Amino acid sequence: MTQSTINDQITDAAAGAALLAAGHAPAIAFAMLDLAMAETLAASMRNAALRQQLSSLSASAATTMVCARLLGAPVTDIVPTEPGAPKGADHG
Fold it and tell me: Quick one: which of 51, 77, 86, 92 has the fewest CB in 10 Å?
């Protein structure tokens, strides 16, 4: 019988830790998969909300322009024609 300098308890503890890590691997993999799916779903929901907000903004702008034209208001009073131009400025 050969004598080892490593205690049998240390060897058993190391083997148990390796077995525990191998046993937890599938659970950790599924947890990471669930996390990736949740993050993807959250990003798509955020994008959908942003698209809805931008669509509403565009519809409001179009409604404002139609109402201004129906009332005969000059468009330059609503939207400046050049960046930084004061509202109502005549650029003609």
Answer: 92
